[in-house]
Structures are given as structure tokens and as C-alpha cells.
Design brief:
Blueprint (H helix, E strand, L loop, with lengths): L2 H13 L25 H31 L5 H28 L8 H7 L12 H28 L3 H23 L11
Helix pairs in contact: 2-3, 2-4, 2-5, 3-6, 5-6
Length: 196
């Protein structure tokens, strides 16, 4: 074997994907890694636990929006199709922010659908299509669950000195969900369409 053939074999070995690897988890779920962020372990543990509940419920809310986005019907179809998709995207941004906060606190964020389904407090809708007012009512109820949780969590985070979590909850989660509630609720106000 000459040097060029040997060099080609080495390059080929480096370019081959190392697929199907397996190993032990580097951090089990529920185990906290201490981060140098000047917060007590108790505070970090409590915030991680609360935020994981919020991740589950925010993912469930986002998925509820996507379901209704695909299954909208009726004279307001176009407007609600767009609104539901916009709100789903905004909930995706919240999921990312919450999950990153969990990691920053030294925890592990839940991420998989079956874990979300086991943990969420948001009631599961039927698989079929529902009338628009029912879709909106489901979304409003889901928002109310998230807002109630987020407010309680923000208070606990503030008491524990976890200003970062408190800020995320108040500035992002609560304000975004309140705004989405407003946009939704106005669609189920019973007002005349043409004459007052």
C-alpha cells in the first residue's frame, strides 16, 4: 500500500458519518447541575420543576393552535387560519425561551411529545374538527391554565430571588399569553355583522 492510498483511507474514514451511536445520558432528567449563577440549589430546583410544567403546557397550547390552524372552517376561516398559525409560532418562541431557561438553571427540559402528553394540564381535544367557537373556547381555556401557572410561578421565583425566571414569566410568557387571549376573545363577542 502506498502513502497516497493510506492518506485516502484516512480521509475516507474521517468523512464517514458515525451513525447509530449509543451511550449513557450525560445528565438524567430531574438531576440538577450546579451552574455558577448565584442562585441556591433549592431555588434552581423549584424553578426547573415549575418551568418544565410550563414547557409541557406551552407545547400543548402550541399544538392546539396548529390543530385549529389546519381544521378551521367557516366565514372567518382565512383570518383565523392566519391568526392561529401566528400564535402557534409565538408559542414556539416561548417554548424555546422557557426550555433554555431550564438548561441555564442546570436542569433538563422535557422535549418529547409523549412526555408532554403525560404532564400537561391542558385537556386533550377530540381528534376530529370542531366548530370555530369551540376551537376558540378551547384555546382561551388553555391560555387561562398557562396564565394561572405563570403568575404563581413568577411569584415563587421572585420570592426565591430568581429574577431571570421571574422576568421571563412576566415579560414574555404572561404578556404574550394575555395578548393572544385578547385577540382570540374578540372573535367570540356576539355583535351584529352589518347593522347595530
Amino acid at each position: 500500500m502506498n502513502k497516497m492510498t493510506l492518506d485516502a483511507d484516512v480521509i475516507m474514514a474521517r468523512a464517514t458519518p458515525l451513525a447509530h451511536q449509543q451511550a449513557h445520558e450525560i445528565q438524567p432528567f430531574g438531576h440538577l447541575v450546579r451552574m455558577p449563577i448565584a442562585l441556591s440549589e433549592i431555588t434552581c430546583t423549584e424553578s426547573v420543576e415549575s418551568l418544565n410544567q410550563l414547557v409541557a403546557d406551552t407545547i400543548a397550547l402550541r399544538d392546539l393552535y396548529k390543530k385549529h390552524h389546519w381544521q378551521a372552517a367557516g366565514p372567518t376561516f382565512y383570518q383565523l387560519h392566519l391568526l392561529f398559525d401566528k400564535h402557534a409560532d409565538e408559542q414556539t418562541e416561548l417554548v424555546d425561551s422557557i426550555a433554555e431557561r431550564i438548561q441555564l438553571l442546570g436542569g433538563v427540559s422535557i422535549a418529547m411529545a409523549h412526555d408532554v402528553a403525560e404532564r400537561t394540564l391542558i385537556p386533550r381535544p377530540p381528534k376530529g374538527r370542531e366548530a370555530t367557537p369551540v376551537q376558540i373556547s378551547r384555546l382561551l381555556h388553555a391560555h387561562e391554565i398557562v396564565l394561572k401557572e405563570a403568575r404563581a410561578m413568577a411569584g415563587r421565583a421572585a420570592e426565591g430571588g430568581d429574577d431571570g425566571t421571574n422576568d421571563l414569566l412576566v415579560s414574555d410568557v404572561i404578556r404574550r399569553n394575555e395578548l393572544q387571549v385578547w385577540f382570540l376573545a374578540e372573535h367570540v363577542v356576539d355583535v351584529p355583522l352589518v347593522r347595530a
